[in-house]
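User: Could you check the structure of this?
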Amino acid sequence: MFAAFYTKNGPAHDVLQFGEVATPEPGPGEVRVRIRTSGVNPSDWKARSGSRPMIAPLIVPHSDGAGEIEKLGAGVDRRIGERVWIWNGQWKRAFGTAAEFIVVPSAQAPRLPEAAGFDAGACLGIPVFTALQAVRLARVERGSTVLVVGGAGSVAHYAIQLAKMRGARVITTVSNDVKAAHARAAGADEIVNYRTEDVGARIKGVDAVIEMDLNNDAKLYPSILAPHATIAVYGMSSGESMIPSSWMMQNSIDLRLFLIYEISEDDRASGIAEINCLLEENRLIHTIARRMPLEEIAEAHDIVERGEVIGNVVLEGKS
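Assistant: Sure, the predicted structure tokens are below.
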């Protein structure tokens, strides 16, 4: 099969290659999916750069994607031709979705509802699922006020939508007017420009925070959080954080950190069910910023790393 791959960590244009690699065969309980789209996430360029060790001599990147099941392993029945989306495609695995085919356990290829295109399917495993898990962990509910940090980001854009669906008032932070418009289109009620405004002065009495940079934002919590608030953290900019722990204890603040690759089986199953229900009802707004051929994967990685676009970058597989 044709695939993009790297054999060492480094800059995208230096290490990403293309070529024929052995087409994987599905084992018991597995399916082989013909990939139509492959999503590019920040974790993909970070892994390629060396944020996590090489687990094999050759890595086909990307965890997210969508396509059609075209071969079954033993014990899997009646799934040939089914449209599916992929989660954890390259988590603790050598071969991800940046290829013609991927083999994964059947459970890692949920059905993709007919109402959703393959491009949307490539945005689900990390962006949508992270947003959903964060909103759930933050206990966002009708009448609550939630701060979604960085509202123009891919995860945050979905988190705004999901929080509004739950009846919350949503505040978000952005850095410019274009990003403000994007966040507003997702349903944000109030927008704060963190470059020109005092976030700690503008935002008060928040019941929940969907946090993508704990290291930078923790200092603001005493100013913005209500007692008994919950913070769901899905990202940070460095390995250690200083938090106002005494104040947080005195105010019974619940700090919840998670990694979307390692959530519980129950959370995974219920999350997939909710995501597919939302897809079937066409309730999610997907922003596909760029559609690019797989051969342009190096440029796609650089675009995401530089933060040049608002929305998701999706690579289209070979026909």
